[in-house]
Amino acid sequence: MTTIGLWTQGASAQPSKGASATLQEQLLQQKATLKQQKEAILELGRSSGEEERDREAADYLETRRLLQTDLPQAPLPPKGYIALVKVEAVRRVDSEVLRAYPGSRPELHYYEVQARVLKVWDSEWRYDHKPFRVRAGDVLPLLWVACKRLRDGREVAAEPIWQEGQVCLVYELVPLPESGDYLSSTAYLSENLSDYWWAIDTPECWRVPRRSNPDDVLYRAKMRYSWYLRAWEVVQEPTLRVVSPPAELLQVLDEEAGFHQLPEERSVRLAWVTQRVQDKSLPLWKRQRALVYWFFAPEERETRFKTEESGGRAYARQQAEYLTFLQGLSEPLLQAYGLRAMLWCYRGRVYQSSSEAFEVWLSALEPFLAKDRPAEVRREAAAVLYYCVVYPARWGVAREQALAYAEAVRSQWEQESDRIVRAYLGSVGWRFCLRI
Predict the structure, then answer these.
(1) Which of 133, 237, 243, 425 is 20 to 30 A from residue 318's alpha carbon, by CA?
(2) Can you spell out the DSSP letters for 135-173?
(3) Is residue 357 a contact partner of residue 401, using CB atoms and an 8 Å limit?
(4) Is 101:218 a contact under the CB 8 Å cutoff?
(5) What backbone phi and psi angles, to 5 degrees, belong to 307?
(6) From CA 174, how far away is CA 197, in angstroms rounded?
(7) What is the pLDDT of residues 152-168, one digit of tens each?
(8) What whole-number distance in Å separates Cα of residue 59 and Cα of residue 53?
């Protein structure tokens, strides 16, 4: 096997104006050497089948469901906009939308759905500190964009999906002033629900922040990344709703609503999670769902009011605390799902950490990678290792320790037989040098 050493020295330095010709030549040679190393590593990956394994690992993460139920799922985050509604009327509002939000695509179809509220799990919805009071019997003017994306990337109008009389669970709603004047200081003063379109996202026609027209109603409908949608394996196609939601789904939302009614103290909230996860009288899927609430527990004071380094230590300690809790659970699918939830929660966070905090975190994760652990657990742990450490170098001042560990796992990668675990360990072992 070809052996290629990892180059851990940065290569982004540019020669200063006063650098000698010799120094400039050395820098150019160094860049050329790094380029050759990158090309050699990529070729090694192609020739050894690593690229194929990488694709297989990515597909596994996207398609392998871990929640042990066939029931459709819905989220119940803190202050989440979720309601059980009955559709009373549906009409096209293309001209009104294009007038209020002129950046919207004129070739798409826009529908206003008059939805009577049957039930809410939180009567006060907050949007940028603006409270909206929502009660059973209120009418929400939902706004849905009929859009689908073709394989060639083009967006075309989709078939209508709303019908009068439908009972739906809708979530992740975003209030948009019907006037379109969303930047005005008075835009959200009204407490009248009918003064807003309650936009419901069409994920298939996602918009990229900073590359989209802010006056596009689809852009306004998705203003944040909600990691918990992935963690809970929530229904997102063709839009964020569950039609005729099963009684079991509504029941679990009733049960989980108790979490949000507890005092906002970390220890109290985590006690609720611990009790529910360990309650073996509950179906496994309900216990799995409860793990997500660990990440909704209030952060410790030193994390909320953090410097970069102290906040990094607190984050690392809290993650290690969570991993230790998972280690004490007996069911492999409960552990695997808990690792998946951690991946979706923390992959979007960038923070600083010390080498000591990194070692604590790594020591808590490594037992899940042991050869004698079930495949589902090892695969999720390997994904956490990659996405929460390597992609993209999340550990700040502990970066050198992360790089050293990445080089150390190369031998484990070469001996790994599980294709998914091997793909992630391989990425940890050599992908770093492609990002430096």
Answers:
(1) 425
(2) -TT-EEEEEEEEEEE-TTS-EEEPPP---TT-EEEEES-
(3) no
(4) no
(5) -85, 170
(6) 8
(7) 989 999 999 999 999 99
(8) 10
Residue 194's Cα: distance from chain center in Å?
A: 31
Would you mind telling me the total number of residues written for the chain in this entry? 436
Which two three-digit tokens encode residue 28?
């150019």
- How far apart, in whole angstroms, are the C-alpha atoms of residue 326 and residue 328? 5
> What are the two backbone dihedrals, phi and then psi, of residue 28, each rounded to the nearest 5 degrees?
-65, -40
Query: What CA–CA distance (Å, rounded) separates 431 from 436?
Result: 9
Closest CA to 236 of 262, 212, 269, 200: 200
Residue 79's φ and ψ, nearest 5 degrees, are 55, 30
Rounded mean pLDDT of 45-56? 66
Write the pLDDT tens digit of every residue in 100-128: 999 999 999 999 999 999 999 998 998 77
Are the C-beta atoms of 109 and 97 separated by less than 8 Å? no
Evaluate if residue 12 carries a pLDDT over 70: no
Domain boundaries, the chain: 82-245, 299-435
Quick count: other Cβ atoms within 10 Å of Cβ 436?
A: 15
- Report pLDDT for 1: 39
Please report, as a single letter, which amino acid is at residue 200.
Answer: I
Q: 254 is written with which tokens?
A: 């009733």
pTM: 0.83
Is the bond into 238 cis (omega within 30 degrees of 0)?
A: yes
Residue 393 φ then ψ, to 5°: 0, 85
DSSP lists the bridge partners of residue 200 as: 144
Distance of alpha carbon 436 from alpha carbon 415, whole angstroms:
26
> Exposed/middle/buried for 294, CB within 10 Å: 0-12, 13-18, 19+?
buried
Amino acid at position 407, single letter: E
C-alpha dihedral over 146, 150, 155, 160, to 10 degrees?
A: -10
